[in-house]
Amino acid sequence: MFIDNISIINYRNLPEVELSFSPKINCLIGSNGMGKTNLLDAVYYLSFCKSALGTSDSSNIRHGEPFFMIKGNYVSDSDIQCEISCGIKQGEKKQFRRDKKLYERLADHIGTVPLVLVSPADNELVVGGSEERRRFMDVVISQYNRDYLLALMRYNRALQQRNAMLRGDREPDAEMLSLVDEMMTADAEIVYRGRCNFVEELMPIFKEFYSHIAGDDEDVSLRYRSHLADRSLQQLLFESRADDLRMGYTTKGLHRDELVMQLGGYPIRKEGSQGQNKSYLVSLKLAQFDFLRRKGGETPLLLLDDIFDKLDSKRVEKIVELVSGDRFGQIFITDVNREHTDSILECIEGEYKLFEVTKGSINIVKER
Known about the structure:
The chain is 42% helix and 24% strand. The chain has helices spanning 36-48, 124-127, 130-142, 146-167, 174-214, 233-239, 241-247, 268-271, 274-296, 313-323, 338-346; strands spanning 2-11, 14-20, 25-29, 67-75, 81-89, 95-98, 101-102, 115-118, 220-225, 258-263, 266-267, 301-305, 331-335, 352-358, 361-367. A hairpin with a 2-residue loop joins strand 6 (95-98) and strand 7. The longest helix has 41 residues, at 174-214. The radius of gyration is 22 Å and the shape is globular.
């Protein structure tokens, strides 16, 4: 799948943008703060119904304006065209449409336009808390497994309800607590199995990409760790109820799962250099891309936002060699260095478009 063209009005610092893209390589150059990342974020928004930057919907509206609008026209791998559009007015609920038909639930859109973003924020997967790594698993699996997404949403709602009961002024009714535990258990099993299968299938692809980028002499691994590996959630919640009542929150469950990232048998957050961490994360995201392509039946869009910083020229060359091949589809690359971008494009066979971004204005400067 690829996005053929996009229309943007008042999204962050982009006042009005109309662009047609190459179905293969699209490079955006410009100084920091000019709007390169905001364009990628608009493309991301059309896939996930939210910003990748973690901002609220209303804060994405350009300063002083009453609304924003994004519209993209896509072409599937089977050459079927569709239009995805979204918009929000200050103080109102956002609206998402596919071929002008309004979605009743935003969850129904997830997976329609598969996309993988690689950005500096990915460093949080290594240095951040376990929540970041759980979110990574959830975002990937939810794009191809609707049952997983719905089970995860139900689990999280029930978890909030359970925690509210535990924090209450009075001790919660034991039967009501057991009922909530039972509701969570069935959904927890769906999510647990989904995460187990995902990590097991992702591992060999991830190691293949890392070996290509960094060489065969560095051993990397991923391991999924969960309370549910030993017993059912219902049993865990029953055994930990006294602790939960004392603490005022649920101490065991899916929300405490961890994705263990290692280099040479040790946590990469402690052992990895900046270049190794970056290579690890890029390999992980490229494996995510390959995984989604095989599972979902559509080739995802690949967004590479300022990823070549802290990588030596050899690793950059290996990454460009990978993503410009037939294994990948449409790619967006941002960079601040025109000479660097030109050297990348020289290594690429086939068509591309090069855009210059200046204070929210985006213009094409070169294409092939």
